[in-house]
Write a structure and sequence with these properties.
6 copies of one chain form a homohexamer. Chain A has 4 helices and 5 strands; from the N terminus they run E-H-H-H-E-E-H-E-E. Chain A has 159 residues and is of the alpha+beta class. Chain A has a single domain, classed as Alpha-Beta Plaits, CATH 3.30.70.640. In chain A, strand 2 and strand 3 (96-107) form a beta hairpin. Chains in contact: A-B, A-C, A-D, A-E, B-D, B-E, B-F, C-D, C-E, C-F, D-F, E-F.
């Protein structure tokens, strides 16, 4: 036994059998950050205030990316999402953009990967749109915040 | 003027015109990390030694993800890559997996986003395959290491 | 309040939460047209009579396009369709091809976008296959004909 | 001979051989419209003025849709675009949104289909985002405005 | 009547209406083979023993390919799979790799095409990874082994 | 050294570096077969004569599948094809359909995988469309017929 559900007893990758799990309401939230230099943060902040197209584009990219989760992550099941939101916050102290993605589905398996993929795709899009100003931006702190539904019930990140 | 090349003077998102740039050899390298708890790291380390399927699967996911960059990141140009590698390193001190993705192309635009998308997709796949053991894993330190080719020449991350 | 369900109170795009809606039988029909010059219409008419490959190809393109709706339209939910048909009619008086797409699903949200995307993709394919003969073809009259199922019940276009 | 380049002498669909055509600068522009009722137009106009998320989302959808052209239109060649823009105009008299998509590439075949697919996808997205307010919206007037490059040179729509 | 469920009375391709079929447990298994020369088989055998990356990669490709079935096969319905496995066996006598793919879903339609597409994609990937050593490899014997669930009940291949 | 170009010295999968190879005219042809029972063959033969929609649909599926090669086969490079044809032949003696796919590109790497993927997707589509009549159909004899261009020059299958 490997301990990893996606690896069988012979060491091969498998798509876990979720056929016996009941369909329940599933929710997951994930967050992530991108840190940039002062010039870039200032431009984003002003742009976000007036027009919003960097974060607006990143939001659409994140939503569409989340819907592609099962075609990006090899062993993920296809889950038809019933809701998805992506919110951004500009954090002055750390010159960072925070992204939070919340996903919901009525499904036999969780939607953590959808929330995490939504956050990642949104942050990569911020990088792409701002890279002419700052190539050294760093994406960090991508993690699950919360997961609800299914046998394991509610799980929340500690801090 | 916004300072962001992907936003035009009216504040609208645009795919930058690269039609006048000459085709040159392009290279980019990016890195990223995922930190996990001791139990998970030990399982991965043993598994990696014997069978390699978690990291082997993450590598394939990263390579395929990099090839999908222009369909994930809204304003990215399609760049036919000539080479792509993804390497992993287990870092004992920080209980982390490090992923490094190197991309190459003969193109009119850079391949940074391909390298960053390769890293992100690989790390999300590690999360997916190990999440039954540790849900609190964090992805961090995704950044460009190096970029070569085109008008701006060589760029390297400072440290 | 914006009045648009896909825009939240802060003006951000959202994938509407359909998690509380019951799964019901959904149906939608959409139509659209493409007008061409006499030479092109005659070729299509003769070809359609004998071999049918322009419209046969457009039908397949429309069916496959409709299945891709949620990856094309950013805020659409993924809906597993239970049926999809695409029919064409040659309209002599207006030198036009009419396309009608009917979609069905057992779902928590409607399938209007699937029917409309099916029609659009089919008509774009007719354009592509006939453009060597007539570049000035115009696509027009793409609209919803009918929508059934869900809280709002039956809706039909007025004329 | 059928007159259609995508149908061979046996009546079968073919992807035309463009291997002997020289790579040249290609440009295409296409336009299209969506007409709505007064309430919907007013909401869009106010929203567009303040936040722009309906048209901002439609722009991203159109750009991403144009990049998917060769996977939507069966016999289209893959063309790596060097530039793509999508612009919208609100036309008060006809209660319509006008979309114009311009595509460029250095390629052996034209980019008309990319421009037309960009317009279509953008207009379908406007429909999706506004359909809760007006289901009877109609998409019309999708056509090629201009095409440049390649053997046939410049072509412009007559009016 | 044509006898083919995907062709209607006018000879047009249709996505069969499965809206009235009840959702039941569905299972399908398919197999397929690829035969190669001795040198190639020996390399694969040794590699499979020590590192497994050819077959490990083929497994991931097959799993991801199976999830794409409805976007590859024009008239297939989208079926969210609940389980998918791909197993390989090296057959010394025939210098062949055997691939077996098993798919499961709770659905209104069967998952035969998913199992067959999984096998095909895996075998194509083996070809791709080994073609530098043997270009004359042949893929053969792709067939359905078993199908369960739905009105027609259990079906098994004869030998 | 493994002998397999897609496996590096550590046993990891890699996308081979083709950056130093010159762009040349590439061609490849592949074939494959599907065998069915008499009833199914007769229906297909009659249908093919009159309406052609099974093989017409399979042809479109094959062409679109070939264009997706690099997203299906993990280590394949993206190659913009300049031509692609798919032809079918009904072989009375063996109750089989033969599919031949020819692909061309001006590229730094070959197009064998595109031709093989085109054949495979087309044959899977024939299976899908005829499976209600014969579930025991077998796909066989998928192999490369010819490959031209690049350093290794012309290669042809022996018989």
């Amino acid at each position: 036994m490997t301990g990893f559900t996606h690896i069988d007893s012979k060491g091969s990758a498998v798509m876990v059998d979720v056929g016996d799990k009941p369909e329940t309401e599933r929710e997951a939230a994930a967050e992530g950050f991108i840190r940039m230099n002062e010039e870039c943060f200032a431009l984003l902040k002003n742009g976000a205030h007036k027009k919003g197209d960097v974060l607006g584009t990143a939001r659409i990219a994140g939503i569409m990316g989340a819907k592609k989760t099962s075609s990006l992550i090899p062993l993920c099941h296809m889950v038809p999402l019933t809701a998805l939101t992506l919110d951004f916050e500009l954090i002055e102290e750390s010159l960072s953009v925070k992204a939070v993605c919340k996903a919901k589905a009525k499904a036999v398996t969780g939607v953590e990967m959808e929330a995490l993929t939504g956050v990642s795709t949104a942050l990569l899009t911020v990088y792409d749109m701002c890279k002419a100003v700052d190539r050294a931006m760093t994406i960090y702190g991508i993690r699950l915040l919360k997961k609800q539904g299914g046998k394991s019930g509610l799980w929340e990140a500690e801090h």
